[in-house]
Specification:
Rossmann fold; 7-stranded parallel sheet; 6-stranded parallel sheet; globular
């Protein structure tokens, strides 16, 4: 007989522990899904085996036994090891980590396989490598062929041919009898990536995992991977948990993107999880970006990663010419519109020449807030406390956090004046203005509002790719990784939107978004141009992006981070205390901060900031307070243990408080 420690499939803090059972199935192993009698009523519950022993050191009173096993939904031992690591690293519950590895949906009752629909894709043969690509493959190939783990940062300018390196590396892994995982930051990029891989390897060898598939399609694709019917997995963030064994390659394209960080528990970092899986398998990791994250570049300096540089575009075209327009001067000249004179002329010239235009503004909706010019009242969400955004489509105010919607009153609710006005601009307003200025041009908008329905995003991009759309207006969905050969101009309507976010990464994000958006221009046979509109044209992020100078930006930003003791020089942990009773949340947050200062600040390099009200102070029925802790890398393990105890204590007593923690968050909302 065996003894097993199991994680019961019950998502509460009260059962977030290992439970010991006897097991008469000799084949039982870590990761197996089993069914056990649970609670006093011995109700059957699913559970997952965390550890197996032949002997039990101490007798277990009233020992219960595993009733049956389920091979179909079982994990392997490596996946279970990562679940236990995630519990510690991301302060989540065991079962939350386990569920990351489980499929959505269930098997078809009719036994019919549900496969994602793809357009007919002709076979593609490998193109000749440039000198830089060839040099890159010579450095990568030995690690894949010898089954040794290594992480490479492929720092390649936009259009430098990083995807060809991914394709060749995947082919090498498959030749070794290994699997390959290809991750992209946005679902909008998966059709493009899928097309390249299917053209090279065939549809039968490629499985797709992302949230835009139906639950049935996701389940069947998951099973194809588990049964080793597909050797290549392509998907967004959650695809890192695909049931792949024997991994030889993991690619994370656009590795700098914030979407690789989960904003729901478990709040995992995809790059960290990918590297953990790669180490287990002796696999190679390729992190690709034209604008690597500051943390990744710093890890090159500390020799955790190895950098491969691609400095030239594959087609040998120069990077697009960039012009920065000072919008303060436009205002002084009497131009109060969101289009500078330079941007208007450039759009007109490109349309006249038969070239396409992308207009980028990383803010959706029509106006960013609604305010009374008489008393200063601002329409806010009753649940979240943040300003509502006006959407002309539907003529309503929407909360971009919880989705709440409100009609627009005729008079100010506070002072009853008629001076309730709309301020700021989003993609709807850009589209509205563009249609007024260029009435004969065909244009579409791509943001979360127009891309909600399944297939709508792909359809919008397909029309632009075929030249049916002359002007594409959008948020960051149009700024990342898309490859259109006829784009002659990219207009960045406001570079300041990202710069003004209350986040220590705001400068880095602004530089990345400007550079990535600019990289959509001139990817065909002709050169392209970029116009950046800004009220802060001298900011180092704008200045460096305009010069395509990553090294200058990195050097400046690293000095700022070091002076302020921000990552990569520490781990930043954001702790949120929430409760239905406002006073209970405030008191618990203060007590936790005092405890943290007594324990954490005793170690050199650690600092506790707060508590203070969260930026979204009220979420639904909960009041929220936040504490930020700068944790020195050497003190990470001790801090993890201490905080786990504090979280458990917070849920006990009369007025229960929830405590969540996020390691190196990408949002401080």
């Amino acid at each position: 007989m065996k003894y097993v420690d199991v994680i019961v499939d019950n998502n509460t803090d009260n059962t977030d522990a290992f439970y010991t059972y006897g097991c008469e199935f000799d084949e039982v192993a870590a990761g197996n899904r089993v069914f056990v009698p649970f609670t006093r009523n011995n109700r059957e519950k699913a559970a997952f085996v965390a550890a197996v022993r032949d002997e039990q050191e101490t007798a277990v009173k009233g020992l219960k036994y595993v009733e049956r096993m389920d091979a179909e939904w079982s994990l392997d031992a490596d996946s279970m090891e990562i679940c236990i690591w995630m519990k510690k690293r991301y302060y989540c519950r065991y079962i939350e980590a386990v569920r990351c590895f489980l499929p959505a949906g269930s098997a078809s009752k009719r036994g019919k396989q549900r496969k994602p629909a793809f357009e007919e894709i002709p076979e593609e043969r490998p193109s000749a490598l440039t000198g830089e690509q060839d040099a890159a493959m010579k450095r990568i190939a030995p690690w894949i062929e010898e089954n040794r783990h290594r992480t490479f940062l492929i720092h390649g300018v936009t259009g430098s041919g990083k995807t060809e390196i991914y394709l060749r590396s995947a082919a090498l892994a498959l030749e070794q009898g290994k699997k390959a995982m290809i991750l992209v930051p946005e679902i909008s990029l998966t059709p493009q990536t899928i097309g390249r891989f299917i053209a090279r390897f065939g549809q039968d060898d490629v499985a797709v995992l992302h949230s835009r598939l139906s639950s049935g399609e996701r389940y069947d694709e998951w099973m194809r991977v588990k049964k080793e019917e597909a050797r290549i997995v392509i998907g967004a963030r959650s695809a890192v948990f695909a049931p792949c064994g024997n991994i030889g390659l993991i690619v994370i394209d656009e590795e700098h993107e914030a979407t690789y960080k989960s904003d729901k528990s478990p709040k995992y970092d995809t790059v960290e999880v990918a590297i953990k899986r790669a180490r287990q398998n002796g696999a190679t990791v390729l992190l690709g970006s034209a604008t690597p994250s500051l943390v990744s570049s710093f890890r090159v300096e500390t020799r955790l990663y190895e950098r491969i540089s691609l400095r030239e575009r594959f087609n040998k075209n120069p990077l697009p010419a960039v012009r920065v327009v000072d919008m303060r001067e436009e205002l002084q000249m009497g131009n109060k519109t969101i289009f500078s004179a330079a941007l208007y002329r450039a759009v007109a010239e490109n349309l006249g020449a038969g070239r396409q235009v992308i207009l980028f503004l990383n803010r959706r909706g029509h106006s960013t807030f609604i305010s009374c010019r008489s008393c200063g009242y601002v329409m806010k969400c009753g649940d979240c406390g943040i300003s509502l955004t006006y959407h002309k489509t539907g003529d309503e105010a929407r909360c971009h956090m919880c989705g709440a919607r409100r009609g627009i009153p005729d008079l100010c609710p506070e002072c009853q004046s008629k001076y309730l006005k709309f301020f700021g601009a989003g993609t709807e307003k850009v589209e509205e203005t563009a249609r007024e200025l260029f009435p004969d041009a065909s244009m579409e908008r791509l943001d979360l509002d127009t891309a909600r329905k399944k297939g709508s995003m792909d359809a919008i991009l397909a029309r632009f790719r075929k030249g049916k759309t002359q002007i594409l207006i959008g948020t960051q969905l149009v700024a990342k990784g898309l490859d259109f050969s006829n784009v002659g101009l990219v207009g960045i309507v406001s570079a300041d939107v990202t710069l003004n976010i209350p986040d220590f990464r705001s400068s880095e994000r602004a530089f990345q978004l400007i550079t990535q958006a600019a990289g959509r221009a001139g990817r065909g046979d002709k050169t392209g141009a970029v116009i950046i509109q800004s009220y802060k044209p001298d900011h180092y992020a704008v200045r460096s992006a305009a010069k395509h100078d990553y090294a200058e930006f990195y050097g400046t930003e690293l000095l700022v981070r070091k002076a302020m003791e921000y990552p990569p020089f520490c781990d930043l942990v954001q702790i949120t205390v929430s409760a239905e009773d406002e006073q209970a949340a405030a008191e618990r947050a203060e007590a936790l901060a005092v405890s943290l200062r007594g324990r954490v600040e005793a170690a050199q390099g650690n600092r506790v900031l707060g508590p203070g009200r969260a930026q979204i102070y009220k979420s639904g029925a909960l009041f929220r307070y936040q504490i930020c802790v700068k944790v020195a890398h050497g003190d990470r393990e001790a801090f993890e243990s201490f905080l786990s105890g504090q979280k458990k204590a917070a849920g006990e007593g009369g007025k229960k408080c929830g405590v969540t923690a996020d390691v190196n968050p990408h949002s401080f909302m």
